[in-house]
TrEMBL record:
Pfam families: LOB
InterPro entries (alphabetical): LOB
Family statement drawn from the similarity comment of this UniProt entry: Belongs to the LOB domain-containing protein family.
PANTHER family: LOB DOMAIN-CONTAINING PROTEIN 27-RELATED, LOB DOMAIN-CONTAINING PROTEIN 4-RELATED
LOB domain segment(s): 4-105
Top-rank taxon, per record: Eukaryota
Protein name stated in the entry: LOB domain-containing protein 27-like protein
Species, as recorded: Cinnamomum micranthum f. kanehirae
Length: 109
């Protein structure tokens, strides 16, 4: 019995072999994730990245690639940087609120 081709091989319309380097990271039920990664990085760049890494680093690297590609799809102008900047603004706002609360508390001590 033959298993289903990974999302990468399905998209590229090629046979998915047992040693397909992309199959562990792009299961058949996640075609959009592969398309996003392919659009942002390209298959050859993804394969080059994987070749340069130790096996223990590959899963984290691919999670990062998929995350960055998915974010770029959702937020095409600023991508991950836009989210980082938004979070930094929120941190500054919460820090300011915390400072104000601590100042009010110091009055009652």
């Amino acid at each position: 019995m033959k298993s289903e081709a990974c999302a990468a091989c399905n998209y590229l319309q090629r046979e998915c072999t047992a040693d397909c380097p992309l199959a562990p990271y792009f299961p058949p039920d996640r075609p959009q994730q592969f398309q996003n990664a392919h659009r942002l990085f390209g298959v050859s760049n993804i394969l080059n990245i994987l070749e340069q890494l130790d096996p223990s680093q590959k899963m984290d690297a691919m999670r990062s690639i998929v995350f960055q590609a998915d974010i770029r799809k959702r937020y095409p102008v600023h991508g991950c940087l836009g989210i980082i900047c938004q979070l930094q603004v929120r941190i500054r706002q919460f820090q300011q609120q915390l400072d104000e609360v601590n100042a009010q508390l110091s009055i009652y001590r």
